[in-house]
Recover the amino acids of this structure.
């Protein structure tokens, strides 16, 4: 049994000339070899006794599709670039056109988990494009901008839309981004926490600029998806919010 080789995502999501057709990243979003959450570990994509890892680090055991959604300008592209490349895209804001993806392979409890991360355009005119991609998403990171009240107020509408178009067991996490912007902040952390509690979704504040909680957000989602897929019958369910709270406490709430 040879291991799967991770697909390479496109170079950038900030492409003002990119196609709004929704085919960005190759194959119209159907190129990922992800297991449906809850799929049996014997379904052929999981190889617990695998050979050593290739130097490219791109081999993986299981794959999942994660989408970044939220209003235009909340920082979806910057969050992805921070996670993938460890850098912050400073300078003028170039709105994403259509949709695109990048891959990242993470090591979760000795299992290589490939996240195929789809960066969507927040602008209203691309909404129908993104809807088409919701259906086979395993997880969604829903972002608002702590310096933009409208982006926070729109979260209810986003959640309604998400639950209308996604699979029933999709993992949703709410992220209040730009937490570094202390002076411009208009949404308190407690407000984000309250809204997340109301909808029963995990929550954390992030910063693509400083890196705060960026790794943690993706790791938490990858852990949840991996546990769902590979859980032993007698193993307790992975508690996503508990894990997030514990990790934030351990890191003094300022993990980068
Ligand atoms: N201070 C601060 N600025 C950020 C952060 N994340 C993004 N920005 C800025 O916010 C602006 C928008 O960021 P993008 O990542 O392009 O926003 P987006 O959500 O991808 O927007 P669309 O592609 O239009 O949907 C840019 O000017 C970024 O530099 C952050 O964590 N902190
Ligand atoms: Mg963008």
């Amino acid at each position: 049994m040879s291991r799967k080789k991770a697909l390479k995502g496109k170079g950038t999501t900030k492409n003002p000339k990119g196609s709004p057709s929704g085919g960005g990243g190759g194959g119209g979003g159907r190129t990922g070899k992800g297991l449906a959450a809850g799929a049996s570990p014997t379904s052929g994509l999981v190889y617990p006794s695998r050979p050593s890892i290739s130097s490219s680090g791109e081999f993986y055991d299981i794959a999942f599709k994660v989408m970044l959604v939220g209003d235009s300008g909340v920082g979806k592209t910057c969050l992805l670039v921070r996670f993938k490349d460890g850098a912050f895209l400073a300078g003028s804001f170039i709105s994403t056109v259509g949709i695109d993806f990048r891959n990242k392979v993470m090591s979760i409890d000795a299992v290589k988990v490939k996240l195929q991360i789809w960066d969507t355009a927040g602008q209203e005119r691309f909404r129908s494009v993104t809807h088409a991609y919701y259906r086979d998403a395993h997880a969604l990171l829903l972002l608002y901008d702590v310096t933009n009240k409208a982006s926070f107020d729109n979260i209810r509408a986003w959640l309604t839309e998400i639950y209308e178009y996604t699979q029933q067991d999709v993992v949703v996490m709410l992220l209040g981004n730009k937490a570094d912007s202390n002076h411009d902040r208009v949404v308190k952390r407690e407000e984000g926490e309250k809204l997340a509690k109301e909808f029963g979704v995990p929550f954390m504040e992030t910063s693509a600029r400083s890196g705060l909680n960026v790794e943690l957000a993706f790791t938490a989602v990858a852990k949840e998806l991996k546990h769902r897929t590979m859980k032993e019958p007698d193993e307790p369910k992975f508690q996503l919010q508990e894990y997030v709270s514990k990790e934030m406490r351990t890191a003094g709430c300022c993990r980068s």
